[in-house]
Automatic annotation (TrEMBL), chain A:
Signal peptide: none annotated. The gene is LOC113505027. Belongs to the small GTPase superfamily. Rab family. It comes from Trichoplusia ni. This is Ras-related protein Rab-8A isoform X1. It is found in: Endomembrane system.
Automatic annotation (TrEMBL), chain B:
Residues 8-20 have a biased composition (Basic and acidic residues). The keyword Repeat applies. Belongs to the protein prenyltransferase subunit alpha family. It catalyses: geranylgeranyl diphosphate + L-cysteinyl-[protein] = S-geranylgeranyl-L-cysteinyl-[protein] + diphosphate. Residues 1-20 are annotated as: Disordered. It holds the Pfam family PPTA. Keywords: Prenyltransferase, Repeat, Transferase. This is Geranylgeranyl transferase type-2 subunit alpha. Its EC number is 2.5.1.60. Transmembrane segments: none annotated.
TrEMBL record, chain C:
The lineage of its organism: Eukaryota, Metazoa, Ecdysozoa, Arthropoda, Hexapoda. It is found in: Cytoplasm. Belongs to the Rab GDI family. The gene is LOC113508531. GO terms for molecular function: GDP-dissociation inhibitor activity; GTPase activator activity. This is Rab proteins geranylgeranyltransferase component A. One of its GO terms (cellular component) is Rab-protein geranylgeranyltransferase complex. It holds the Pfam family GDI. One of its GO terms (biological process) is small GTPase-mediated signal transduction. Its main location: cytoplasm. Residues 87-106, 508-531 are annotated as: Disordered. Residues 519-531 have a biased composition (Acidic residues). It comes from Trichoplusia ni. Keywords: Cytoplasm, GTPase activation. Substrate-binding subunit (component A) of the Rab geranylgeranyltransferase (GGTase) complex. Binds unprenylated Rab proteins and presents the substrate peptide to the catalytic component B. The component A is thought to be regenerated by transferring its prenylated Rab back to the donor membrane.
Length: 211, 528, 531
């Protein structure tokens, strides 16, 4: 059960149905694109470990499991997340307008210092575009969030978007660690349950007998 | 398709894993080849550093690769600027930390870390101490980490009290921890010595530790780490080295000490006088070691009158020991001896309290071996003379109910019985030694105390050949009986000037060997 | 938007309580087509956790529209602090000095400052613990649902003994460390506990063959335990009272002891952000496997009809839409009365209370997470379960603690629980900065809940009614019931088999993969370096 990374970041993808969240996830984690991922059945999260300034950073990127469809994302989904990709579809005006609602949702449920980023996806479909890049930028300025247009299909900016978000989280985290007086005991969240206990079973009966 | 997620079958998964493994193995082999090639060509450069790092980060225990890295870093240290060097050392520490995550018990990784910190000019020991605490949180019994922690502490010297408290914290989490108890014992004598009483540990702390360890022992009697610490605490008493007996004859002069002493101690602090005149001579240990309990004085002096010995004790006191003329040429000086443990009054009170608890428990579970053993040890420690009978009785019971440790109990019986008899024997001027108790002894504890004896009767015991080297203490012995013991060989029998040796009744001793022994010791009458 | 909602499902689940959510997940996991609805706008029903704002809405709803929350009654909310402090309305910079050196002065809380930090509260309607080796923990792990939740270990178990709070030595480390019991008692206690854990079935039958109709207390007394030890074992470890039958006491002790040493110093885990997270974790799994979710969707009418092939179809009218399914799983509080047959006869309602305080009931170096089993004060009373959780659990802002009381109702929540509150809290209001021995209670809520935990049969075979929360400490009964319902709907199918990890999943038309070994993907374990 060796932990072979320096940092583990939990990231979320959020946005209306059909904006391409799963495609972005697959482009980044598998370097694959498949037009037939209509729904997101069975996909929970994907993992990719990246190298940032010599540190191994494990990114655990969670998909919405379709619960965005009727606005029924569980509060549990937001727990412990450190970064959120807000995704809209540049060919879908409504999905762009809804970003504000999603931000409100995040403020309600996620931790206050979560890093956010807005992605305008499907920018390869220039002909069908309904939301200009400028409007995206403007919204980003309004909320003081970073913004980038992506195309999961053409593999445009997906990589750099995740690297940017991860780098921002890492910087924030290291700053916090520096401020905290005890670097070793940086406060963690709760325990995740595993089959094998994290510690060896120091049951109250455990002991060593040598005599 | 609803809800049906395709998962690789076990077969597919196995094949995929195998393929992956093969692929990785290939890469691994390739990398190792390249590494050794480069090393052969003396290409100790950054590329090699990178290559070895990659292999190590998944195989932290290939120590050759760590060696290579050290070679490289030593070369770099000669030419690189200090800032760049510092970065390289930091990277090395990062790598070891990463490797220790994979295997927290990696000797090489811990060693490499130690090397980096002692090599670089700007080590940060506080970070290291934090690292130790972190790793001990994962596994509070990892002795690698404890060892490393002691190393770090020796370098950065944090307040010892903090370290002491750290062991307390770890023991409260889990007291089955030899490393923590051991570390604690080391600090205890440094932090809280009893300066006034000259004892190793100051009263209140001694009491506190005894309480703590008894709590552990009774919470889980089957945990042995606590017992070890308890024994150590009970043994932490003032024990002054003194001369117990010396013998001067024209042919040989010997001095026996209560504990082994160093050559220099004997040379500088032991003086023999004849008619108040200091005798000149040389000291030799009887076994030829630098550290021994019995020493031989080589001198040309011929003594015919009053002989005296002076020994400068550790605490500055002078032990002056006059002698008694045993016969025309033999002078013997014996000190008064006691095996009573010199606890302070408060500690004795605490021991009596604990004894009381033990007795209560024993009334509830009379067959509990742990309770019985602890009771017995307390009895012996509090007043060996007074409780001698009860102690022996308990040990005999323990031999029956705890067969696994019967040997250990026999040892205790031998030792404590011998001690008991010694005190009586020393009150007389006899030159004879004979076991006067019923228990059969299996070893020869405190045997130097009998170095003055001429007639030693060790018959009818359970001694085997492993005790023979100890007979070297019998420098003045004339008749020795080992009749009816369990000797199997005379191989280790020391050179002695014995006139009569009785070996009868050692059934497994070979006739041939005894014959050979006779030939080699013509001056001795051997009865077999 | 709701118009997108498909109308035909194999299973429709109404209500997002614990039992309903587990059933939904289990059905979806094995491929059933599941729709999961709830009449309110949040998950959990009676099992929900609320932030402070949500809680206020809930209270308002119960008080103004009792029909919507039939299960809850006798609800009384009380403040012990000012609405707003005079200075604070001026001084905007209400952020306290973050972790400054030393102990910062105690913050003075007002109703307004609660409201300002409302999001940091997660207050449970049904606070419960998990036994580290209990059925829910095992289910979470075996089903891989554990990855959706985080837990904190309960750090201590307290009891009320000789009119004060006392820590209960319940693990080997505790017994070693405690100064509350003598050395002889330590041995006795460890011996008793070790033997209870160690007995196999045969030894158990042997040891207890004459104890069938006797109490646990009699057994402990017989074994020579001191009154203190009897109190610890009976009241704190077994969670029983003087009348607890011997065999039940042994069983409860064993359950407690078997869960020790897995995750922390006590046998218990507390879900981060409250018990209300747990149903959501099961919902997430249901959704991952294709379950459709719709909240704020009350149902109006449930009927059954026989389809052409003779199968019974359950039809549900909801917002002028008719939904069809083979099986309806419905929470008891959402269930139309005519579907229940017959109404559960006798039941004992539950008295509950929530307190928000400005300190722990017993000071401790690190933030504590406490289970206190308060023994009955008089013979008529019941034992009270007290749970105290702090900021580290995500239950409240820094500086506060949330304390839950749960007991079986005798009179009403306030009369049942107030006497105990007064023993461990300072209920007098007043100066919050004063260094009082007991923590100040800043806010309290008392209420009774109807006991809906007994299993209920429905009048229709393909309708399955899920019970509400019980007064017990753990979730074991909910898990058990969910599995029973699942077995009825999907006979012969595995209950929540392990969900695959993402890397195990293959996709139908796997396309354009990048080169396999280029990336540092350390998740695939291996013994060779990566290029």
């Amino acid at each position: 059960m060796a932990k072979t990374y320096d940092y583990l970041f939990k990231l979320l993808l959020i946005g209306d149905s059909g904006v391409g969240k799963t495609s972005i996830l697959f482009r980044f984690s598998e370097d694959a694109f498949n037009i037939s991922f209509i729904s997101t059945i069975g996909i929970d999260f994907k993992i990719r470990t990246i190298d940032l300034d010599g540190k191994k950073v494990k990114l655990q990127i969670w998909d919405t499991a379709g619960q965005e469809r009727f606005r029924t994302i569980t509060t549990a989904y937001y727990r412990g997340s450190m970064g959120i990709m807000l995704v809209y579809d540049v060919t879908n005006e409504k999905s762009f307008e809804n970003i504000k609602n999603w931000i409100r949702n995040i403020e309600e449920n996620a931790s206050a210092d979560v890093e956010k980023m807005i992605l305008g996806n499907k920018c390869d479909l220039e002909a069908k575009r309904q939301v200009s890049k400028e409007r995206g930028e403007q919204l980003a300025v309004e909320y003081q969030i970073k913004f980038i247009e992506t195309s999961a299909k053409d593999s445009l900016n997906v990589e750099s978007a995740f690297y940017t978000l991860a780098r921002d989280i890492k910087a924030k985290m290291e700053k916090k660690q520096k401020e905290a007086s005890n670097p070793a005991g940086a406060r963690s969240g709760g325990h995740q349950l595993r089959n094998e206990p994290q510690r060896k079973p120091t049951s109250w009966l455990s002991r060593c007998s040598l005599l | 398709m609803h809800g049906r997620v395709k998962v690789r079958t076990t077969e597919e998964e196995k094949a995929r894993k195998e393929k992956e493994r093969q692929e990785k193995l290939k890469i691994f082999k390739h990398a190792m080849q390249k590494i050794f090639h480069k090393r052969k060509e003396s290409e100790l450069d950054k590329e090699l550093l990178e290559l070895t790092g990659k292999v190590l980060s998944s195989n932290p225990d290939i120590y050759t690769l760590w060696n290579i890295r050290r070679e490289i870093l030593i070369i770099f240290a000669k030419t690189y600027e200090s800032e760049e060097l510092s970065q390289l050392y930091d990277a090395e520490l990062n790598l070891t930390e990463y490797c220790l995550k994979i295997n927290p018990k990696s000797y090489c990784a811990w060693h490499q870390r130690e090397w980096v910190l002692t090599t670089r000019t700007d080590p940060n020991w506080e970070i290291e101490l934090g690292l130790c605490s972190k790793y001990l949180k994962f596994d509070e019994r990892n002795f690698h980490t404890w060892d490393y922690r002691r190393f770090v502490v020796s370098q950065c010297k944090p307040p010892l009290k903090d370290e002491f408290d750290f062991t307390t914290e770890k023991l409260l989490d889990n007291f089955s921890n030899y490393s923590a108890w051991h570390y604690r014992s080391k600090m205890l004598v440094e932090l809280f010595p009893d300066l006034e009483g000259g004892r190793p540990i100051e009263d209140s702390h001694h009491k506190h530790e005894l309480k703590m360890v008894q709590s552990a022992a009774f919470t889980d009697p089957d945990d042995t780490s606590a017992w070890f610490y308890q024994r150590w605490l009970l043994g932490a008493v003032r024990m002054d080295v003194q001369v117990v007996v010396y013998v001067m004859t024209p042919s040989k002069t010997t001095v026996a000490f209560s504990k082994p002493v160093d050559q220099s101690v004997v040379d500088s602090r032991t003086r023999l006088f004849h008619n108040n005149e200091l005798l000149n001579g040389e000291w030799q240990s009887c076994s030829g070691n630098h550290y021994d309990v019995l020493w031989i004085f080589k001198s040309n002096a011929v003594v015919s009158e009053e002989v005296k010995l002076e020994f400068q004790m550790e605490d500055g006191h002078l032990q002056a020991l006059p002698s008694i003329k045993m016969n025309e040429t033999k002078y013997v000086g014996k000190s008064s001896i006691s095996f009573k443990r010199k606890y302070s009054k408060p500690v004795v009170e605490e021991l009596n309290n604990q004894l009381e608890s033990c007795r209560q428990l024993l009334a509830m579970e009379p067959d509990n071996k742990w309770t019985l053993l602890t009771t017995t040890v307390f009895l012996h420690c509090i007043d060996a003379k007074k409780y001698h009978k009860e102690v022996l009785e308990n040990l005999r019971t323990l031999k029956v109910i705890d067969k696994l440790r019967a040997g250990y109990y026999s040892d205790l019986i031998t030792q404590w019985s011998v001690e008991d008899q010694l005190v009586t024997d020393y009150a007389t001027d006899s030159l004879d030694y004979k076991i006067k108790f019923d228990e059969k002894i299996i070893s020869l504890p405190h045997f130097q105390y009998y170095s003055h004896c001429e007639n030693v009767d060790l018959s009818n015991q359970d001694l085997d050949s492993s005790v023979l080297p100890a007979l070297v203490m019998l420098q003045h012995c004339k008749t020795l009986s080992l009749e009816n013991n369990k000797l199997t060989t005379l191989n280790k029998f020391p050179q002695l000037n014995i006139e009569e040796l009785n070996l009868r009744g050692n059934k497994r001793l070979l006739v041939e060997e005894v014959e050979q022994f006779k030939k080699n010791n013509k001056n001795c009458t051997i009865i077999f | 938007m709701d118009d997108d909602l498909p109308t035909d499902f194999q299973v429709i689940v109404v209500g997002t309580g614990m039992v309903e959510s587990i059933v939904a997940a289990a059905c979806s996991r094995i491929g059933k087509n599941v729709l999961h609805l709830d009449s309110s706008d949040h998950y959990g029903g009676l099992w929900a956790s609320y932030n402070f704002d949500g809680l206020q809405k809930f209270i308002k709803e119960v008080n103004s529209d009792p029909k919507r929350q039939l299960q809850v009654y006798n609800l009384a909310e009380k403040w012990y602090i000012e609405k707003a402090s005079a200075e604070e309305s001026k001084a905007e910079g209400e952020e306290k000095p973050e972790d400054g050196k030393g102990e910062p002065a105690k913050k003075v809380w007002t109703q307004d400052s609660f409201a300002a930090e409302y999001r940091k509260f997660n207050i449970d309607m049904t606070p419960k613990l998990l036994f580290s080796r209990g059925p829910l923990v095992e289910l979470l792990i075996s089903s891989n649902i554990a990855r959706y939740a985080e837990f904190r270990c309960v750090t201590r178990v307290l009891t009320w003994l000789s009119d004060k709070l006392m820590p209960v030595p319940c693990s080997r480390a505790d017994v070693f460390a405690t100064e509350a019991v003598g050395i002889v008692e330590k041995r006795q206690l460890m011996k008793m506990l070790t033997s209870i854990v160690g007995y196999n079935e045969e030894e158990m039958n042997n040891e207890f063959k004459d104890w069938n109709d006797k109490t646990f207390k009699e057994y402990l007394t017989h074994k020579g335990l001191t009154p203190n030890l009897i109190h610890y074992v009976l009241s704190a470890i077994a969670g029983g009272t003087n009348s607890m039958p011997c065999l039940e006491g042994v069983k409860e002790c064993k359950k407690f002891l078997m869960s020790l040493g897995r995750y922390g110093n006590t046998p218990f885990l507390w879900p981060m952000y409250g018990s209300g997270e747990l149903p959501q974790c099961f919902c997430r799994l249901c959704a991952v496997f294709g379950g459709v979710y719709c909240l704020n969707r009350p149902i109006d009418k449930v009927q059954t009809k026989t389809a052409d092939d003779g199968k019974t179809v359950v039809t549900i009218d909801s917002k002028s839409k008719t939904l069809n399914c083979d099986h309806l799983v419905i929470g008891i509080n959402e269930c139309p009365k005519d579907l229940i047959s017959p109404e559960p006869a006798e039941s004992c309602d539950i008295s509950k209370a929530v307190f928000i305080t400005n300190g722990s009931i017993m000071k401790s170096d690190k933030e504590p997470l406490t289970l206190l089993r308060f023994p009955p004060l008089t013979d008529e009373d019941n034992a009270v379960t007290v749970l105290e959780v702090g900021p580290a659990t995500g239950s409240c802002p820094k500086g506060l603690f949330v304390v839950y009381f749960i007991t079986n109702k005798v009179k009403d929540a306030e009369s049942d629980l107030m006497p105990i509150a007064e023993k461990i809290f300072d209920m007098s209001g007043g100066d919050q900065t004063a260094d009082t021995e007991k923590p100040k209670c800043l806010w309290s809520l008392f209420y009774n809940v109807k006991d809906t935990s007994a299993p209920v049969a429905s009048t229709v075979d393909s309708v399955h009614v899920c019970s509400g929360p019980d007064a017990g400490l753990d979730f074991d009964r909910a898990v058990e019931q969910a599995e029973q319902i699942f077995k009825k709907i999907c006979p012969g199918q595995e209950f929540l088999p392990r969900a695959p990890d993402p890397e195990e999943i293959v996709f139908e038309d796997d396309v354009t993969h990048g080169p396999e070994f280029q990336r540092e993907d350390e998740d695939a374990e291996g013994d060779a370096p990566k290029e």
